[in-house]
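Exercise 7. Given the encoded structure of a 99-residue chain, write a plausible sequence.
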């Protein structure tokens, strides 16, 4: 499952305490940033750009405790740049966080 409510909620609570509006704002920020990095990966025309976007996505996922997204970013870094399979799974993982 790409959306880890426990890990993400714990990370958000550590930052915002008991402020649901701020937690939701941070969740939206996570999703928007992840979508931006996924888009950069999709548009990468060289290995270095792919790697830079994947590293940023990995760091973002680690910050929020989004372990599935973190694992997919690591897979993107370990595999062939531009791998459409990992790109699709990253987009599905991000989409599941919206739910």
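Solution.
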């Amino acid at each position: 499952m790409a959306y880890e409510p426990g890990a993400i909620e714990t990370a958000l609570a550590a930052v915002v305490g008991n402020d649901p509006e701020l937690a939701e704002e941070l969740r939206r920020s996570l999703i928007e940033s992840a979508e931006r990095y996924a888009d950069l990966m999709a548009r990468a025309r060289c290995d270095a750009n792919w790697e830079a976007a994947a590293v940023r996505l990995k760091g973002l996922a680690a910050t929020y405790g989004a372990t599935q997204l973190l694992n997919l970013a690591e897979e993107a870094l370990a595999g062939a740049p531009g791998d459409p399979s990992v790109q699709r799974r990253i987009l599905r993982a991000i989409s599941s966080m919206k739910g």
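Remark. The two ends are 12 Å apart (CA to CA). Students should compare their own answers with the one above.
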